[in-house]
Each structure stands twice: as C-alpha cells, then as structure tokens.
C-alpha cells in the first residue's frame, strides 16, 4: 500500500513528465521507501513518464482492444488469444511488476492481435466481394429469365396471331 501512496506522491511532484524512466528508486528513497517499482503499472507509468505518458500508453492498448471488440464476429484463434492476453496483462499489471517481467510477451500477443485484426479486415473484404459477385450473377440470371419469358410470350402471342389468321383464312 505504501508503494502506491508513494507513487502518487511522485506523480504529484512530477505530473507532466514524471521523474524519468528507472528513477523511482531515487524518488522513493527520498520519502523513505526502499523499492524501485510501484507494483502498479498505471502508477509506475504516471510516476516515470508523467500523466500524459501513462494516458498515451493506456489509450493505445484500449484502442487495440476496442477495434478488436468491434470485429468480434470475425475473430479467429489469434484474436481470442490476443484479447485474453490484453485482459490478463491489464489485471496483473495493477498489482504486479508487469512492466518488468511480462511486457515482452505482452507485445508479442498485441502484435498477433493486430495481425489478426488485419486478417479480419481482409476476410471482410473477401466477403463483401463475394456478395457483390453473387448479386451480379443473380442479376444476370434474373435478366436471362426475363428475356426467356419475354421470348416465350412473344412466341406465344405470334403463335396466337398465326392461329387467328389461319382461322380467318379458313373461313
């Protein structure tokens, strides 16, 4: 608990730019804490990079998460894994030292999620093109059917007129 309170003190002291990366140890030492990390990623980032840096970091993660959620009906295995990893990472980063021991794995899975979203977009384009192609083929088939019906009706009306003229000749 004292790590979080200490981190808030550092954020108050350096709100815009933070105390600098890997400098929390020195700032903590000034307030009597013998530790270098806050064990809370939000407070760690706000303390070392300032509030704008923490907001930028989390807004990027939230943006990737949001785009993934908007495409949920097209998810593949990688998308499910990526979303699970993002949620797990965010939960663990609120109580652990996640910037230190899991960030490499986190970025690998975020990369997989981004690739998956890219793949989803390509799938959506393929589906849209297939629908357009099917609509064109349906229009062609409808036109062909209408042409056949028109030809048949023209033939039947000409046959009817031929029959009438033959009847008139026979009279």
Give the secondary structure arrangement, pairings included.
Elements: H1 2-13, H2 24-30, H3 41-70, H4 77-93, H5 98-101, H6 103-170
Helix pairs in contact: 1-3, 3-4, 4-6
Radius of gyration in whole Å, from Cα? 34 Å
- The tally of helices reads 6
- How widely separated are the two ends? 114 Å
Low-pLDDT ranges: none
Oligomer: single chain
* Helical coverage, percent range: over 70%
Protein structure class: mainly alpha
The major pleated sheet works out as: none
Query: What fraction of residues sit in β-strands?
Result: under 5%
Shape: rod-shaped
What keyword list fits this structure?
171 residues; mainly alpha; 6 helices
Structure description:
The chain contains six helices and no strands. It is an all-alpha fold. Helix 1 packs across helix 3 and helix 4 packs antiparallel against helix 6. The longest helix is centred in the last third of the chain and has 68 residues. The radius of gyration is 34 Å and the shape is rod-shaped. The chain starts with a helix and ends with a helix. The mean pLDDT is 77.
Put the structure in a nutshell.
By secondary structure, the chain is an all-alpha fold. The protein has helices at residues 2-13, 24-30, 41-70, 77-93, 98-101, 103-170.
